[in-house]
Design brief:
By secondary structure, the chain is α+β, with helices and mostly antiparallel strands. The chain is 34% helix and 40% strand. 17% of the residues are buried.
Length: 128
């Protein structure tokens, strides 16, 4: 399959989520990013030193399975500390789309309940 056509197919799955994501952005004043890292995904981000993320991304390109996770993170001297949890793992996009508004609210409440004290070492950041 033509790479451009394949990308459009993968991206079209996520476009189904855009109206609910845009409504969530309007209500909560968070930032929405769409497939900015050469991989099909949608990311909601907010926060300062403590960064909060809700991400829906293509997990398995062959089976067209998606995952949705939440993550609280903080970078400290080239080390990233975080706490994360999957709300959905390797499921068809319909499993996320059918309950997206509720999943977003659950994710936001959980992220807002976590604090810096909950974070654990995650990775060392590379020099850029």
């Amino acid at each position: 399959m033509d790479p451009g056509k394949k990308w459009k197919e993968l991206e079209s799955q996520l476009k189904l989520l855009d109206p609910d994501l845009e409504e969530f952005v309007r209500l909560h004043r968070v930032r929405l990013y769409r497939s900015t890292r050469n991989w099909p995904d949608r990311r909601l981000e907010w926060g300062g030193n403590l960064s909060r993320l809700i991400q829906i991304y293509l997990e398995d390109e062959d089976k067209l399975l998606y995952s949705m996770w939440i993550c609280l993170s903080e970078d400290r001297d080239r080390r990233r500390f975080w706490k994360n949890e999957f709300l959905k793992k390797s499921v068809p996009i319909e499993d996320i789309a059918s309950n997206l508004s509720n999943l977003l609210e659950i994710g936001m409440k959980r992220l807002e309940s976590w604090s810096r004290d909950d974070l654990e070492y995650g990775t060392t950041l590379s020099d850029k």
